[in-house]
Design goal:
Blueprint (H helix, E strand, L loop, with lengths): L2 E4 L7 H12 L4 E3 L6 E5 L3 H11 L8 E3 L5 H5 E2 L3 H10 L4 E7 L5 H4 L4 E5 L4 H10 L3 E2 L14 H8 L5 E4 L10 E4 L6 E4 L5 H8 L3 E2 L27 E6 L2 H17 L4 E6 L9 E6 L2 H17 L4 E5 L6 H12 L4 E3 L1
The structure holds adenosine monophosphate (AMP) and magnesium ion.
The site of magnesium ion (MG) has 4 residues, from loops.
Amino acid sequence: MTLISKIDENNIDKEEIKKQAEILRKGKTVIFPTETVYGLGANALDEDAVSKIYKAKGRPSDNPLIVHIYDKKQVNNLAKDISEKANIIMDKFWPGPITIILNKKNIVPMRTSGGLDTVAIRMPSNKVAKALLEEVKLPIAAPSANISGRPSPTKGIHVYNEMNNRVDGIIIGGDCSFGLESTVLDLTSDIPTILRPGSITKEDLEAVIGQVNMDKALERKEDNIKAKAPGMKYKHYSPNAEVFIVSGKIDDVANKINELVNNNSKKRLKTAVMCLEENKNRYNCDTIVLGKDLQEVAANLFSALISVDEKKYDVVYTEEFSNYGVGRAIMNRLLKSAGYKVIKC
Ligand code: AMP
Ligand code: MG
């Protein structure tokens, strides 16, 4: 049985938080909201507890987990060789949607780090997450609360539908405000490297610590290279429908998509287009509006991909977005969900 707690982030029910914290203290699993996506948590220092996360998600065991904390002091227990740049990032962006990779101390089990000598750490800003972490007083490993390979949940209802009875507790909070997973920044080398783009961008980071590189694995199809962030080598964010990105000038994109939609309807394939609000009247089929601007697209993308399955579409075409700022994070997730299929026009 899963204990379900509905918690309003503006009026936190401490008794419910205590019950869920107790579940975590017993070495069991609890899903909780964060500002990025919902996380599936367990005690990061307890190998058996962490094994339950992998089992609930069906996640490959070499894909490491992010350890969530509520106080910067906890970093010293988990990691060593903490550089000046790491301190600047923590002071400037925490609590918030950035995860840092540091060399790990032995207290962090290999099961948590996916067999690596490094550990990923983040301090979330979501009030419910903070209340839970403060109450439990343990570092909590928490990957996104989806079955491995599926889009990450950003709404309580999606978590409940997918994970009820697979975990010991679920805290249903509001919708996740950023909607894409955290930026992952490797701080173990002289020049920090972004392993996963998120809403804190390369430009935001360079403004405070100077040069930041993007991991090479982000630029090319991942199967061909040995990805440094192990999670990047797996199929990800995939609805059951086939997803294609259509790239080019918007008039050409709309013409191409409408031509493809015609062919699909002859084959009785149910088709939808994911697009910006301003373009929704260009298409001769169902549209899933992702938002007015890139911030809204980021917040809505995963719930849009989940709704694709709820509405049983066979094929989804999506517009392409600018590969700059938060657009980089959006395109990173979209390319994966499309299995890198891009139609150029
Ligand atoms: P998730 O928790 O589902 O958002 O996935 C966490 C991701 O963070 C993993 O898939 C990796 O890509 C990355 N990550 C976590 N720990 C490490 C680490 N020690 N080194 C490199 N990447 C990591
Ligand atoms: Mg994930």
